[in-house]
Design brief:
- The chain is 47% helix and 10% strand.
- The protein has 141 residues and is mainly alpha-helical.
- Helix 1 packs across helix 2 and helix 3 runs antiparallel to helix 4.
- The radius of gyration is 17 Å and the shape is elongated.
- A hairpin with a 5-residue loop joins strand 2 and strand 3.
Length: 141
């Protein structure tokens, strides 16, 4: 097992203030927030789901499978988190696919072939909005 290594970074006072505010808003320490931001920055991103992008469709297959196989909202979120994603509502109320754990909005779930309404009917319950989604709505790309 490798040991964690420490690095130091110089930040302008304004950026440090923004970092501390953002970490507090997410209920994290600054160090945890930075680790999550770095992990999100280097994590693979879902490809363009355009029909003329076969490689994109191939890389989206695990996400589409997770949506298709889920038995309820909890199961869906668990499956997506295992792939590095999560569902959240954006500021317009749309259900969007976000990166996990940083929760950066990537695309509306409708681009994966599922509407929030259809999923709600399938699961017999509306999407359970989280505290975080209400406090800081995601913005879809």
């Amino acid at each position: 097992m490798t040991r964690p290594r420490q690095y130091s970074v110089e930040l302008a006072p304004a950026l440090l203030g923004d970092l501390l505010d953002a970490a507090e808003a997410r209920g994290q320490s600054a160090a945890d927030f930075i680790r999550a931001a770095i992990a999100d920055a280097v994590a693979p991103k879902p490809p363009n789901p355009a029909p003329d992008n076969p490689a994109g469709a191939e890389r989206l297959a695990p996400l589409v499978d997770a949506l298709a196989c889920a038995t309820d909202w909890f199961d869906m979120q668990s499956r997506l988190r295992g792939l590095g994603y999560v569902l959240r509502r954006d500021c317009d109320g749309r259900l969007v696919l976000c990166s996990w754990p940083l929760e950066r909005a990537l695309m509306p779930v409708s681009k994966l072939g599922h509407s929030a309404e259809a999923l709600s009917l399938r699961f017999g319950a509306p999407f359970p909005d989280s505290r975080l989604a209400k406090a800081q709505p995601a913005r879809a790309a």
